[in-house]
Amino acid sequence: xxxxxxxxxxxxxxxxxxxxxxxxxxxxxxxxxxxxxxxxxxxxxxxxxxxxxxxxxxxxxxxxxxxxxxxxxxxxxxxxxxxxxxxxxxxxxxxxxxxxxxxxxxxxxxxxxxxxxxxxxxxxxxxxxxxxxxxxxxxxxxxxxxxxxxxxxxxxxxxxxxxxxxxxxxxxxxxxxxxxxxxxxxxxxxxxxxxxxxxxxxxxxxxxxxxxxxxxxxxxxxxxxxxxxxxxxxxxxxxxxxxxxxxxxxxxxxxxxxxxxxxxxxxxxxxxxxxxxxxxxxxxxxxxxxxxxxxxxxxxxxxxxxxxxxxxxxxxxxxxxxxxxxxxxxxxxxxxxxxxxxxxxxxxxxxxxxxxxxxxxxxxxxxxxxxxxxxxxxxxxxxxxxxxxxxxxxxxxxxxxxxxxxxxxxxxxxxxxxxxxxxxxxxxxxxxxxxxxxxxxxxxxxxxxxxxxxxxxxxxxxxxxxxxxxxxxxxxxxxxxxxxxxxxxxxxxxxxxxxxxxxxxxxxxxxxxxxxxxxxxxxxxxxxxxxxxxxxxxxxxxxxxxxxxxxxxxxxxxxxxxxxxxxxxxxxxxxxxxxxxxxxxxxxxxxxxxxxxxxxxxxxxxxxxxxxxxxxxxxxxxxxxxxxxxxxxxxxxxxxxxxxxxxxxxxxxxxxxxxxxxxxxxxxxxxxxxxxx
Length: 677
Prior knowledge:
This protein is mainly β. It is built from 1 helix and 56 strands. The strands form 17 sheets. It has a 4-stranded antiparallel β-sheet, with no helix packed on it. A hairpin with a 4-residue loop joins strand 38 (479-485) and strand 39 (490-492). It is extended and about 130 Å long.
């Protein structure tokens, strides 16, 4: 019997050990990520052993932090966003179980503090700018609440403007959300004191006198609490509700008035432009002249008048070579027979005012001028093309060129090759034996014989935020490289990199100077950085047709083929939505009103989501009131509704007013005006 008993005991103990270890289950856990790198780990291990109460949980978070706990859930804060291999070890001394499992924790670190600034633009108009102090600025949305019942829908812009209708204290808040990390959000609320006030203000005056003039100006708004500040364009100033200012000379002037209400702090301003003429009713006394080849001169009176009573002026031109011309016209053509210095005058007589004004100008006449004027165009590498400016307009001239480097030519137009860089005085002498004169013109020409070119080599890949490398196609130790980027950055060296936080259209400019020769070359490049959705400059447009039919078109500019997988979700603001892969959609609104329309772009392959909103004003009758007009005779005009072919007359009634008291009620009336205006 004893020989049989011992094997039975051994078998029983073995089975008990197997049964005990059968309760060991491989650990399992899940995690969730919150803002600021806070990750909550939850033990999901299924274990029916009542001895689990004695289990020890050892959590290794993969960033060097290890803790032990007897609880099922733990929270850990990571200092940066990345991928970490976290593990859970469950050990139970009563069962002998000790098993470990691993999982990779990946997340984008979300840690920012919402803040905003505000600036008053006057009379209740405010501008707000949010700041997250975060590198995720290109992946944040902003929702504003202005504290007066008005909000700004979710958008990508950190700035917002709002007009308050009344003064008071308002709690303004902005909610900043990350589109990369779910739940990554922060809100800030601040109280602002708003002063919303305005009052109408104009400047009252009567400009009747001529210079020297003493003119009175009066504020239309007057109150014992108001203070007045006047300034005039001639440097004069004044205070008080009414001021008088002297204008000794004719000319164009402006008066500016600023009024402050001491009781409320409200301000208003007004300005007035006006003209003071001289005794003849003229504002500016002047005439211009132009001398062409052959001594042909043209004179034009530029004496400006804003006085409707200035009429019947008499012009007396004295050309300075013995001729005097009296007429009622303000222009004169005259030919000078000889070269020389002449003094011409213009006398203007206003018989109705009993005034007489005269002014003079002295000038040189060269009957061959400006035949020697010329153009110089670089053909590259020190080659220049020279052409007289008046070559085809003035025959009978011979030309003599001197290029400043010893080279000459007698051709009318010529190409010259410079052997070295430098500054060269180029002279052209144009001679006309028929007129018996010559004209000379000299131009200092800066010549560069440098012939090298440069280009910018780069590969634009990835999405914002991204760093791009740029390289000069010309590389030499004697070259100086200057890079200028459109986002405000600069760099040097033959190769450089530049970082782009946001999507958009950018440019880069490169300047290369060869210190050995002094030669320089430039290159520029324009390119696009897209966001994770493969788009930049998110936007959509809309057009309204009769009956409330609106066509919406996505204009979110894309440079990346991945954007072909976009899903478009339209919210029309009237309770209706549309979803699909088309970038254009039509929607019919049933009533007039103001609607907030949003377009959400989803790119499943990139895991991105962009939302943009616009407010539209809808009139289901628009654009039925648009019309065209054309003249059919003297004072006779035809008017027609622009959409009369597509709008049945049975749907609309028409009421026209023509501005002269006339009216009509058809869709395409004609009207005869009896006076100009």
